[in-house]
Amino acid sequence: MKNLKRIFLFIGVMMLLLPIRQDTLAAEEYHGQPAKNGEIVFLLDTSGSMNSNDKSRFAIDAIRQAVCSLPSNYKSGLVAYNTGIQTIVPLSGGADPMGTQLSSVIYKGYTNAGEGLNQAVGLFSADENVDRSIVMVTDGEIDMPDKQAKESSRALYSETIKKAKEAGIKIYIVAVGSELNDPNMHIFDGAEMTDGAIYWQGQSGNLVQIMNRILYDRMNLPKRSVGVTDGNGGSLHVELPSPGAERVKVVLTSGQGIQNVTADYTADEGHITSGRNFAVIEMTRPASGAVDVRFQTPELSGVEAYMTVEYTARPVVNINYRREEVLPDAGSEEKSKTKFPPLYKHYADLELSLKDTAGKNENLWNTPYYEGQSVPFCVNGVWKSGTISGGLIPYSLPIDGIDTVTVEFDTSMFAEQYRIEQPVTEQLAPPPDPIPEPEPDYRPLWAILGALALVIVLILLWWYKKKNAAVIYVSQSPSSKEPVKMKTKACTYSGKFSIYVVRTADGRDVPPQTYHLFGRNSGRMTLGQILASCKIKLGKIGEEDIIIYPGPDHSVIIMDQSERCTVLRGMEILKKGMGYPVFYNEKITITFEDESTEMEIHYKNLKPSERKS
């Protein structure tokens, strides 16, 4: 009986403290990864045929455009090849050496792509946590003076592709001219085998557009679009981000050429790098709040403008201390007559921000641009996600038993590039607890709270039992007018889902995924849980409201509880809130609430080998 009283007392105290902890720890769980450095090698075909397919040397201009657009944490190199290797520029952080070598390139000779790719792969470092890419610009297949040399180059090309794949190097191939019109050509194996991509000049856009797609869509380099203009010239007013940026680039590109680019701004340093189809205004520690750019184009053509911003920063942790009293355990009837000193749980209410360390030493997030944005952060080894409010991210941390707090951020999702001096560690120094005063006897209240807690526990147990024995209404054949009740507790999962993301709102490609159902605990699942397990991130567009249960005869039950999703079983639209059985080799098609994202889910049986594994 005494032990039962203790249990009631403990549950009552926890029920009082639980709502407070839920509010203060509102940040959701998050496992973040820091942004990576990058290495990119441009592999340029300088064979004689390029004199016909690249008369205006737009390929060279496009490579200069890409190099000048890279953030400072990316190193770039160059290999130009024809019958042999014409020139090599080792990996470095500057665009000037690259521009000098590119200007001296001559188109002549044959196409020794095997040796060119071999030299390009050899330029990369052995550093860890680095994204590595090769951008290959070519107009034809491997071609050498004799058959033996040609076969040797082809073999070396195939062997080097395997090395690139093992090293995690992605190869992007830009096909110029009209000779590379067959996607099954041997030269394209480099992109296919390394999870890269192939772009055809004309079909995939002009070379300016293709380079932008590789940098910003494929390699996901941070940038912010700041304007698109039409006409044969004009001006652009670009508002710069919060004070404290270490480096800002404004990149202008046009497929028909751009000339006479000037810019008005105030910065410690600055210069303009121009090409035939691009211009880059680079500013170091800009002091003004905007830059005004003027330019001309030779024809009526559009000009796209992007801005890249780099910060050097350090996390800042402001700490306010808080304590909450915990009522002690009565222990025994004799012990309960003794007055115990109050017990406290102690918390640190943190205010997290990011301070510029290269300029004005200000809070970088204290601007309207960052208000409401979500930021992953790590406190003492646990990743969370919080929302910026007034330049700060609030977070509450229980501090009993710990002396320090260590904080770091993951800013890889921003359109700006951050170099952060982290993690930072702060010592905890909470104020001493107050001297207790005599308190009234709360034992009757504790007994009531304990009884209430017991009732709540019984209700939760009843709810949990009911949840595991879920009853759903399942749609039957068209001849059946009424749906049939079905309990899912006795059913088990089998088979697997083959998941294909047909279309996304932002146009990105998502590889097909397989999700094994066989052997999983019976019970309710959501499509959102499955997509998270497959690491498919689509945003909150209704995937959590697509419900899945195990069904009889190796079926699964699909139920659409969303507001605006459209779910089809074959050609049949699923009614909201109604379960539908799906059997092996049937297909579910889902159009999500953003009306852009579309997905197909094929339900298939497992092979015997898959069941063993």
TrEMBL record:
Q: Which SUPFAM superfamilies match?
A: vWA-like
Q: Where are the transmembrane segments?
A: 445-464
Quote any Pfam family the record assigns: VWA
What Gene3D superfamilies would the database entry show?
von Willebrand factor, type A domain
- Cite the VWFA domain residue spans from the record: 39-214
Question: Which SMART domains does the UniProt record give?
Answer: VWA
Which UniProt keywords are given for this protein, alphabetically ordered? Membrane, Transmembrane, Transmembrane helix
User: Per its UniProt record, what InterPro entries does this chain match?
Assistant: VWF_A, vWFA_dom_sf
Q: Which domain of life is it from?
A: Bacteria
Can you name this protein? Ca-activated chloride channel family protein
- Species this chain originates from: Lacrimispora xylanisolvens
Species lineage, top-down? Answer: Bacteria, Bacillati, Bacillota, Clostridia, Lachnospirales
